[in-house]
Structure prediction request, 489 residues.
Amino acid sequence: MTDTPDPEYRIVVGLEVHAQLRTRTKCFCACAASGGDGPNSRTCPVCLGLPGALPVLSRAALDLSVRAAVALGCRIAQHTWWDRKHYGYADLPKGYQITQHASPIGTDGLLRFEGGDGPREVRIQRVHLEEDTGRSIHDEERTRLAFDRAGIALLEIVTEPDLRTSADVRACLLAIRRLLRWIGVSDAEMEHGQMRCEPNVNLHIRCSADAGTGSAWTPTPIAEIKNLNSITAAARAVDYEVARQLAEWNATGTIGPGPRTTRGWSESAQRTELQRVKEEAADYRFLPEPDLPVVTCAPELAEAARAAQSELPDARRRRYIDDLGLPAEVADELTQTLALSDWFERAAGAADAPRPVAAWIVGNLALVEAAIVHRRFSAKDLGKLVRAVERGRVPRAAARRIILPEMARRGTKWREIVAREGLEMADDAEVAAAVRATVDAHPDLVETARAGRPQVLEVLVGDVMRATRGRADAAMVRTLVRGLVLGRP
Ligand SMILES: [Zn+2]
Prediction:
């Protein structure tokens, strides 16, 4: 590195995302897509690439791909087909991968998401359906091959290079993962290899010498960072790559469009490492897969997908902020999954009060999520409880500390808990009696308050709240105590 000041530059990042589709079987054979009984138990002549075995397209994989392309706002292909992409690798048994080259299912889409510091858009170049490869497992002595993943249905999403910061890269990947889960096309568990991403990173640098020539921005060569399996790693790899390319530019003073390079991310060293330099576009000798038909029904499937599609997470988040008046971070939490968001809407409907319900859910998120999974209480139960609290019929503290935890633990109805524990709000006579008894019991504090330190009356307010087990309204108790002691509120 040199200490030359950084030149003016902008970061240019595009993403390739691979997500495993939620299908029972693999993409082109009947092998199970998950489960199995040890390495190479989920294989057959098709996914092992044995001579004469013929692929059959999974209808479910096609459906889910179209659904994803629709949700990403893509134009859907009238005719879509598959191609063979040839390259030699031990875990690619056929010697080619079945993918889509010339006719992706979807093109020209758009994803809106909340970026590092405001709303962002990323254009979607293409969405296509392909098969996964097997796995090579290297140890010191040998390489072993497992073909259980070979042939699994993968969705590939390619964005345009519209991202400008690593924070936006992170936010975009989070948005893609949330969307894929929301529409039910992928579980997208990155730690299980169900979603992987490859950022393409370069810089556009404004060289001072360019000022006279009019060529404003000079690009550095694009680095493609392979197979990242966490969103954090993707953001860090982009940060590292930006610093590396900048340092290289500073050291050499010139950098021009050079060959694309492929780099790997080393988690232990927290840096990218050169894997290979692509002197020219790799020659994969694409040719249409002759054993699969051209699909012409994608537009019809897209029509059905559009009709069945629920409101998408970004639109719903905006509606929560704009129409319901929820704070942005609350709207974010509530739109993390479709299940939680739908549950919130049912609870808000039952309470007829979206904002308090949202605060209750976000403030007790672990408990609510467990309740959804184990069906301990319903959205309507929570909504009715919140309504009772908001209308002053059930004490807020008791609802939080006693009622909601018991609903979650035992599934007891909140009305039963209130009746059993005597948790209805104290009536006016009971509160007034408690205030009088407390004031009578503390002549010293009363004297201090009357001598010019009314703040000590807070001790009495606390005592009354304890005496009524939180079943009184604290503001009302305060007014009554001050009235009794000071003769004014
Ligand atoms: Zn198979």
Observations:
- The chain has three domains: 8-301, 310-421, 428-486.
- Residues 231-252 form the longest helix (22 residues).
- The chain has a mean pLDDT of 91.
